[in-house]
Specification:
- Pfam families: N_methyl.
- It comes from Dysosmobacter segnis.
- This is Prepilin-type N-terminal cleavage/methylation domain-containing protein.
- By secondary structure, the chain is an alpha+beta fold.
- The protein folds into 2 domains: 96 residues, no CATH class; 163 residues, no CATH class.
- The protein has 7 helices and 14 strands.
- The chain has a 6-stranded antiparallel sheet with strand order 7-8-9-10-11-14, with helices on one face.
- It is flat.
- It starts with 9 loop residues before the first helix and ends in a 6-residue tail after the last helix.
- The relative contact order is 0.08.
Length: 318
Amino acid sequence: MKLNRKGFTLMEMLIVIAIVAVLISVAVPVLSSQLERSREAVDLANVRAAYAQVSTEALLGKTDVTVTVNLKQKQAGWQSVDPVNIGGIVHSKNEGETDNWKGDAAPEGNCVVSYDEIHGVVLTWSGTAAPGEPSHPFDTTHTQFFDNVLYKTDFWKNGEVKQYNFEFDSRCPDSSYIPQIKEALKGNMTNSLLQQENCTWAFLGDGRDGYTADRYLFWTSLDTNKVGAGVKIPVLIQTGDGKYYVSETTTGERTKGNGTQKKTYIAVSEQITEKKDYKKFLKAEAQYSSLTEAYDAYVKALADPKYEGVRATQTSAP
């Protein structure tokens, strides 16, 4: 009888190893995510139980009772649910502190559940792994730039720009619209993304009723007047329906006025007139779930060597 001693070839072994590596790379993040969700579920259940205990004690007249819940989660914030609802206290990501919600959940942290005679039950979160200083130069709780800024202006309320294509660029001189937008910013926000020094932003898109998703906010940390026209720059984009992207535009020269009143400025993007042209900026692989994630991606994009020239304009003398 002839024995078959043929084994696997080197190529077959390499293919098997490659397949196993791919499966592991997919499975490990999924497993890690599921474990974190489980830990957060336990934390939420424990805090809700503490909420019920403190609420009951308060109804019985014992308003000085506090319960401390040690957290099991390994990541700051909440990965599995948004908004978080604990006994009717509802809190969304990036919302900031409220009368009933102080701080944020963090690894190795805890939640102190107490009672305030004015505001009711208060949840105070803390953790040794929580960052001591803000990781962003702007107030991350300010995200509603359409609802709380653009839509608050008189010209928008009066329907002056209910047209197919509008553009309000912050670099436009003698604009009748930009001062109103800046006033709405000042009245509703402090240290927001749009209020960062030397940044350039523009609201663009379709102003007609029913076209909310076809409106866009383009933002860059660069002073486009220093960058010049025809230069590619990274931009952070927020759409009217609350989505975030990081993309690239080419700066464009605009003219305001006529004759001796003629002035030029550099807008955040070349002229865009068609809806399909806006869509080119919104690539699925560059979409982000929050303003902070998009900003972090923008900073990473700006660090690309191809933007070395435009980065230099941030530190050049005016």
